[in-house]
Amino acid sequence: MKTIINNIKGDRLIWAIAALLAIFSFLPVYSAASNLAYASGGGNTFNYFMKHFLHLFLGFSIMYGVHKVPYRYFRGLSMIMIPVVLVLLAATMFQVDTSESLTNARRWIRVPFVGLTFQPSTLASVVLMVYVARYLSKIKDKQVTFNETILPLWLPVFLVLILILPANFSTAAIIFTMVMVLTFLGGYPIKYLTLILISGVATFAIFILIAKAFPDVMPNRVDTWMSRIENFSNGEDTEADYQIEKAKIAIASGRIYGVGPGKSTQKNFLPQSSSDFIFAIIIEEYGLLGGLFLMLLYLWLLFRIVIVAHKSDTVFGKLLVIGVGLPIVFQALINMAVAVELFPVTGQTLPLISSGGTSIWITCLAIGIILSVSVRRQEIKEQEELEDNPLAILSETI
Q1: If you average pLDDT over residues 4-24, what whole number do you get?
Q2: Secondary structure of residue 111 in the 3-state scheme
Q3: What is the extent of the structural domain holding 58?
Q4: Tell me: the pLDDT tens digits for 45-89?
Q5: CB atoms within 10 A of CB 159
Q6: Burial code of 19-57, b = ≥16 C-beta within 10 A, e = fewer?
Q7: Of 244, 238, 249, nearest to 277 (Cα)?
Q8: Per DSSP, what are the bridge partners of residue 117?
Q9: pLDDT tens by residue, 303-317
Q10: What's the CA gap between 238 and 230, in Å, rounded?
Q11: What is the DSSP string of 370-387?
């Protein structure tokens, strides 16, 4: 253990923030999972606690391993992984849906021989952001035409989005938004971005029309999206708003200081209380102060991401950190906004807090990439200090 701690490099504050989020998650997940335990787990809540612990342990192992990899290698890996994620997304999209879910959400694929389920769209989001960062760094300070960027840049983006959209509109929308933000920050011409935005809206409109014309292809998905948006906009109290209503009751019950750890009552009625709506349970048990503390942690993470990006020695490093780091904070804010009814229900988890293996693992992967960039900056700084100190050079030689 001591050897591992000594080998931890990179931005120590990012390590600390990730550790605080992970430690903070145990009590809310353990508490919120109690209704699941009594409904389908025979009343054994400890199994859910251990499952969450194992997910976090594997996630931090991924983070540790990735942060040891020089970030320049991610340039080539993104090109290799783009075809892989496209195959995974296609396999997930076209698999036979044997569930009786009314939403027909084909988001998961089962890993053979292991028995675990995996959500390829989560991995695809990180791979795609790395790929876009690689391309933008390649064309930086070059004069490019729109036609030159269609195949190498936008074709992979739209292929990924098209494969994710039928089953997971919110994830596709977040990825598209983050790609647009990254390309804007990367200096891609605004006039071309306007064309892409128009093309994206037009493609989505065509998709809606096709889904309406052939409802058997994607039963209930478009109707689910539209009902969520309509219910959110008109404020009607319908059955579709059940989750939001229970979340608001939980938040109102928490007040300033909360009812206390493990004492939530709405966890017994709120679906997805340990994942999508865990923020409402946190406020109920830890109050407004607990919710603000959690929000400050994510904002602190955003601040450190900006610092690491600013200090990176390459354009690719800067764009890479922003590309994989910004979606983490963005997703967290969306999850919180849904819980307080500032945003329609999306199904997005709270990074490093909500239960669920894929979300935790891919978030840790993204943080590991950020730490890898910060490690390079740390090495350059140490080398500069060594060169400026003749005594240090002499001691190193001896």
Answers
A1: 88
A2: coil
A3: 2-397
A4: 778 888 889 999 999 999 999 999 999 999 999 999 999 999 999
A5: 17
A6: ebbbebbeebbbbbbbbbbeeeeeeebeebbeebeebbe
A7: 244
A8: 110
A9: 999 999 999 989 999
A10: 11
A11: HHHHHHHHHHHHHHHHHH
Interval 314-358: pLDDT, tens: 999 999 999 999 999 999 999 999 888 888 888 788 999 988 888
Domain count, the chain: 1
Residue whose C-alpha is closest to residue 199's, from 223, 222, 180: 180
> Which residues face 109 on adjacent strands?
118
**Exposure pattern of 90-121 as b/e (b: 16+ CB <10 Å)?**
eebbeeeeeeeeeeebbbbbeeeeeeeebbbb
Q: Is 398 exposed, middle or buried (0-12, 13-18, 19+ CB in 10 A)?
A: exposed
Beta-bridge partners for 118: 109
Report which residue type is found at 309: A
Look up residue 343 and give its DSSP letter: S
d(CA 105, CA 268): 24
Mean pLDDT of 361-380: 89
Please name the helix (run of DSSP H) or strand (run of DSSP E) that holds residue 134, with its range, or none. helix 120-138
Contact 298, 329 (CB under 8 A): yes
Q: What beta strand segments (E) does 171-247 contain?
A: none
C-alpha span between 256 and 254 (Å, rounded): 6
- Work out the number of other CB atoms within 10 angstroms of the CB of residue 63: 26
Rounded-to-integer distance, Cα 34 and Cα 29, Å: 9
How far, in Å, are 61, 232, 312 from residue 386 at the CA level?
31, 59, 19
Q: d(Cα 203, Cα 161) in Å, to the nearest integer?
A: 11
Residues, the chain: 398
Other beta carbons within 10 Å of 152: 14
- Give the tens place of pLDDT for each residue, 92-130: 887 755 544 444 446 777 776 666 778 889 999 999 999
